[in-house]
Amino acid sequence: MKYFLLTIIIGLLSFTANSQELEAILEKESANGTELVLGSFNGTRLLNGHSIETRKKGVLEFLISHRFDRVNSGFDEFFGLDDSNIRFAFEYAFNDRLTLAVGRSSFEKTYDGYVKYRLIRQKTGKKASPISATLFGSMTIKTIDDFEDESDATFGRRLSYTSQILIARKFNQNFSFQLAPTFIHFNRVNSPDDPHNMFALGAGTRVKISKRVSLNGEYYYNLNPFESRDVKNSIAFGVDIETGGHIFQLIFTNAVSMIEKGFIAETTGDFFKGDIHFGFNISRAFQVSKAISNEQ
Amino acid sequence: MIKLYTICLCFFLATVAVNAQTRYFTKDGHISFYSHALIEDIKADNHQVLSVIDTESRELAIQLLMRSFTFKKALMREHFNENYVESHIYPKAKFTGRIAEIKLNDTNPYETEISGTLSIHGVEKEVSTKAQVRIEADKITLSGDFNVVVADYNIKIPALVRDNIAKIVKVSFELHHKPYK
């Protein structure tokens, strides 16, 4: 009888072992994959500056951004809300890695265009990569006529260029960190003392406080700022709110410009003396051609 | 008694040995779901479904990565993973169960029932559904569809998007198994 019971027990064991074996087969077969780490940041902008994120193939993003005047400009100006710099832009993702965009800012009547390319994407699994890296290059054309000498106002002298390598890591679901070494070239500067080539290092973070809300911070340290103007490093804090196809970013920053060469190099506000601009970015994404997001 | 025990043991060992040759497997099975709501219809496909059948025990195990679902709009995929199924915490959906009937020598398609445990978003539920079985030379195809009540799996749909996402989604499956080597 003892043996008989033993047999039944072994029989039962072999039965459960079987269903576990089937699962083991699936685990073994599924272990070979590499997975992309998605959603390091909510949007293509951290706050003022770009994040490593780009839109997926076939997405046209319409971006409207505002920076109001300084909140310390008093009640008569309604704490800066009477005056604003607006930038609107169309940004199109040709594929999951490449985005081209054009934008126009009311501040200094500036047009800008940029190319953004995701070079390295953070991955887990077989071919893991600990970080993401995105290349960013932009050109801006200042069309406002504020040149003291009119012969100075040539097309070439209105241009400036920005190059960045954005490097980020999503440490966990709630915390991501980004570094942004930046190089800016100005074709024309105000004074002979001012550098034509400028280097800066940006750092930024996103901390998610719920599924749809996150707190962001961003700081750009300028290594060789303009000498002729009292410029400050750009600093920004904000809240991202995600609602389906929209992302709202509410921002407090000492910069009025929303393009790289502007907020990194030409910020004059002192954040800690109350020269704070309230602003927002609103993005609306349209899927204009079919997404093939089979790339994992 | 020892003899009986030995015989039984041999029998079980034999079963295990036979099992090794009765497994059918796929890693590119297709599972899709369809949500019909007031504002929009959402369809998502997953062509990387793993599934294995044991024809001897009639047991079945299916597994897929939530992140492998593809949508018409790229943002839908992101929201699906980040906000609804939370695939960073619950990366896989799994099913383990049993097929009521496997007629290995019958090449005519027939209908049978599959029942077992479905696990989505960390929640396990007993389910059972009708399924079509088609057995051709060295190939076992299972197909069918069933409804999933989103709330059963503790997936919350905020009021803001309740007109965009259905409370019950239709899940369809088509799995072509081949002998597992």
UniProtKB/TrEMBL annotation, chain A:
Residues 41-286 form the DUF5777 domain. Residues 1-19 form the signal peptide. Keywords: Signal. It comes from the Bacteria. Pfam families: DUF5777. InterPro entries: DUF5777. This is DUF5777 domain-containing protein. It comes from Leptobacterium flavescens.
Automatic annotation (TrEMBL), chain B:
The keyword DNA damage does not apply. Residues 32-175 form the Lipid/polyisoprenoid-binding YceI-like domain. SUPFAM superfamilies: YceI-like. Keywords: Signal. Residues 1-20 form the signal peptide. InterPro entries: Lipid/polyisoprenoid-bd_YceI, TTHA0802/YceI-like_sf. This is YceI family protein. It comes from Leptobacterium flavescens. The lineage of its organism: Bacteria, Pseudomonadati, Bacteroidota, Flavobacteriia, Flavobacteriales.
